[in-house]
Amino acid sequence: MKRSVCCLLITILATCTTVAAPRRDRMVVVISLDGFPSYALEDPYLPIPTIRQLMREGATAASMRPTNPTVTWPSHTSMVTGVDGSRHQVLYNGLLTPPSAGRPGKIEPWLDKDKMVRAVTVYDIAHKAGLTTAEVDWVAIYGARSITWKFPEIPDPEGVIEKELITRNVVSRDQLVNFRKAPITWRDSIWTEAAIHILTAHKPNLMLFHVLNMDSTHHRYGPMELASYNAFAFADDRVKQVRDALAKARLLDRTTLLVVSDHGFRTVNKLIQADAVLESKGVSGAWVVPEGGTAMVYATDPAERAALMPRIADAFRVVEGVEAVIGRDEFRRLGLNPDSKESPDLVLAAKPGYAFSGGKVSSASPFRGGSHGYLNTDSQMDAIFVAWGAGIRRGARLGQVSVMDLGPTIAKLLGLEMSDVQGHVLREILE
């Protein structure tokens, strides 16, 4: 009996020693370059020397597939939850209130994360394990109690980090008050300064850092144009600024850098004005949410849904630039939940060169710029994935990975585990 008890204790102790413990010595820094398409990396003249160096010295994937819809907030939420929109339920750049009683719905950004994200995040898990977390301009994260230090997209002049930056003369209180009115390049620079300050002064185990200039530039001028090349160079310099600051603070040996993006981009030549289509067909009772390469259609009165949706589907199938009209019976293959109250009644998909927009000017008006939001089976929506530093196997090369792989991989780097997720740990890149 005594021998059995001893054997049992030895077995328990041996098992306990194999369980991963939180890596309190590790810093994982995620830098998301909004709107960086993976196909851009094929251009040998792309002015991104820092990112190229990280690719040579670290690990990289050929591309990273986003989840549907291929939009900023949904994609970033998939990064940190390891699941798609059918589970985390972030389908827009904000919280959706569906239409009802014949009135259109609304989308509200910057509401509390607990109201918006229906899945556990990697920063929730890290915080619960006693690790410290931080975010700078991350999305769907407002009010998150599991974030230790923050400098949000709309900073608060009374916030802890904001006051520290004011004291250091990085930014003034008046500049913070008027932050949203400032040029996006300046805001990216301040967000970078905030990230560096948090990293070097507070040394969080996990930092989520998001910059926006490239996305803004691609929307306005289109990808792979002169303005776009300037945006690539500017983004690369933000990565260099973070890496150099970590080196100066002697933190590089404990830091893992993950440089990623949320989606790619397409050049757009014509806009499909969805409201104009419905008006021309004499169809009312629908609310359309354009998301660039796709548009979400809702019946404003659920009682009218069954009769209304076939009419809307027929109306859009013959419209110039519409690739497909997708009903709820096909939502699961898109990674959407047809049973969720947030889910649309129809998804409209645009052809290459076209994008959906609001307004009632014409059904296909000329335009020059860029967009995302196309179905994630479109390879031009693929994002980038680069990993470098502590815990990363030098020279590891992967094919296509999923944006949902990011969260589980971050957890593994921190000695943690994400369970019940759709993504998986990218073990091939780990030492």
Task: Briefly characterize the structure.
The chain is of the alpha/beta class. The protein has 15 helices and 17 strands. The strands form four sheets. Strands 6-5-7-1-8-16-2-17 form an eight-stranded mixed beta sheet, sandwiched between helices. The protein has a four-stranded antiparallel beta sheet with strand order 10-11-13-12, covered by helices on one side.
SSE blueprint:
Layout: H1 2-18, E1 27-33, H2 49-57, E2 59-65, H3 72-81, H4 85-88, E3 95-97, E4 106-108, H5 113-116, H6 122-128, E5 133-136, E6 149-151, H7 160-167, H8 173-177, H9 184-202, E7 206-211, H10 213-221, H11 226-248, E8 255-260, E9 266-273, H12 274-280, E10 286-290, E11 294-299, H13 305-317, E12 322-327, H14 331-334, E13 346-350, E14 354-357, E15 365-371, E16 385-389, E17 397-402, H15 406-413
Parallel strand pairs: 1-7, 1-8, 2-17, 5-6, 5-7, 9-14
Antiparallel strand pairs: 2-16, 3-4, 8-16, 9-15, 10-11, 11-13, 12-13
Could you explain the architecture of this structure?
The protein has 431 residues and is of the alpha/beta class. The chain folds into two domains: 27-264 and 377-429, Alkaline Phosphatase, subunit A (3-Layer(aba) Sandwich), CATH 3.40.720; 267-371, Domain 2, Phosphonoacetate Hydrolase (Gyrase A, domain 2). It is built from 15 helices and 17 strands. The chain has helices spanning 2-18, 49-57, 72-81, 85-88, 113-116, 122-128, 160-167, 173-177, 184-202, 213-221, 226-248, 274-280, 305-317, 331-334, 406-413; strands spanning 27-33, 59-65, 95-97, 106-108, 133-136, 149-151, 206-211, 255-260, 266-273, 286-290, 294-299, 322-327, 346-350, 354-357, 365-371, 385-389, 397-402. The chain has an eight-stranded mixed β-sheet, sandwiched between helices. β10 and β11 form a beta hairpin. It is globular. The protein starts with a helix and ends in an 18-residue tail after the last helix. Mean pLDDT is 94; it is low at 1-19.
